[in-house]
Design brief:
single chain; alpha/beta; Rossmann fold; 2 domains; six-stranded parallel sheet; 10 helices; binds NADPH dihydro-nicotinamide-adenine-dinucleotide phosphate; binds 5,10-Methenyltetrahydrofolate; multifunctional enzyme; NAD(P)-bd_dom_sf; methionine biosynthesis
Length: about 280
């Protein structure tokens, strides 16, 4: 069997169009500010794509570039300024941050109502307790892709590989909220392959190119590859060995063109949600 490809580019384009249509009905342009400290190359791709998408959807969007040696105090002052700016509905501080800056401290300083990344402990807590808040873009995008693929979640065995605060944990919370039976596996898991083989829904968010092998995947499983890894030759690769896994899965996302474009579309969606919630 050769799995159906879940076209993240197409699903993201539809979502961006829905967001743009909603923005067009508003009497103001929702404001988004992305703060980038230094020039981490992985963030570069994201910031470029995001700028284009945000302008296309009619948002008032700008990227603020700060030097790599920016102090924590200076970044906190920038966040405070954006918190106080009534034109700004969404604030995203690009991760990773340079070593002199405590990322958790910066995330905690963002007004939770403007936290379009959904990384503030307030929003993480709302998600964990089944309440409405701003949901992290990447796992939110994965849920859109699962819906587009027609995946049946209630009662399904879902396995999430990775337990980061930005992908793995919120992914598990969203799948649980959708009534899946969720297992989270990580670097201390005894038998990764065996856990993955039990999955009807498998989400890989590890950061290791091609780690999920063909024989880790059950026949017909839906496989979502969150990984964005830069290979030595410059190409992007996911966390899933795409060619091998494709022979077993029922549906699979490619990299690029899978989860990445959804992350950006969900950032726009979150910005509009935050704007409407805040401005009434
Ligand atoms: N498509 C998109 O929009 C986005 C893609 N990404 C990509 O997703 C991937 C994951 O990102 P992120 O969650 O931030 O990464 P982190 O490095 O924060 O977390 C990686 C997770 O994978 C686990 N892990 C690492 N090595 C292994 C291993 N050998 N076996 C099992 N588990 C392992 C770690 O386990 P432990 O906790 O035990 O250390 C950790 O929980 C990256 O490729 C990143 O680039 C990230 C954000 C957005
Ligand atoms: N505060 C914060 N929030 C984030 O959400 C965040 C972050 N920091 N830091 C970096 C990671 C990474 N990330 C990506 C999102 C989209 C693509 C993306 O658009 N990928 C496309 C194109 C890739 C290409 O063509 O090079 C694709 O996969 O098809 C990539 C990477 C968000 N992140």
């Amino acid at each position: 069997m050769s799995a159906r490809i879940i076209d993240g580019k197409a699903v993201a384009a539809e979502l961006r169009a829905r967001v743009a249509a909603r923005v067009a009905t508003l009497p103001f342009a929702p404001g988004l500010r992305v703060v980038r400290v230094g020039d981490d190359p992985a963030s570069g791709v994201y910031v470029r794509n995001k700028d284009r998408a945000a302008q296309g959807a009619g948002l008032n969007s700008a990227t603020m570039q700060m030097p790599a040696d920016t102090s924590e105090a200076a970044l906190l002052a920038t966040v405070a300024r954006l918190n106080a700016d009534p034109e700004v509905d969404g604030i995203l501080v690009q991760l990773p941050l340079p070593p002199q800056i405590d990322a958790l401290k910066v995330l905690a300083a963002i007004d939770p109502a403007k936290d379009v990344d959904g990384f503030h402990a307030m929003n993480a807590g709302l998600l964990a307790t089944g309440q409405r808040g701003l949901v992290p873009c990447t796992p939110k995008g994965v849920m859109h892709l699962l819906a587009a693929a027609g995946a049946a979640l209630p009662g399904a065995r879902a396995v999430v590989v990775g337990r980061s605060n930005i992908v793995g944990k919120p992914m598990a919370a969203l799948l649980l909220a959708a009534d899946a039976t969720v297992t989270v596996v990580h670097s201390r898991t005894r038998d990764l392959a065996a856990e993955c083989r039990r999955a009807e829904i498998l989400v890989a968010a590890v950061g290791r190119a091609g780690m999920v092998r063909g024989d880790w995947v059950a026949e017909g499983a839906t496989v979502i590859d969150v990984g964005i890894n830069r290979l030595p030759d410059g190409r992007l690769a996911g966390d899933v060995d795409f060619a091998a896994v494709r022979q077993h899965a029922g549906a699979i996302t490619p990299v690029p063109g899978g989860v990445g474009p959804m992350t950006i579309a969900c950032l726009l969606e979150n910005t509009v949600e935050a704007a409407i919630a805040r401005r009434g």
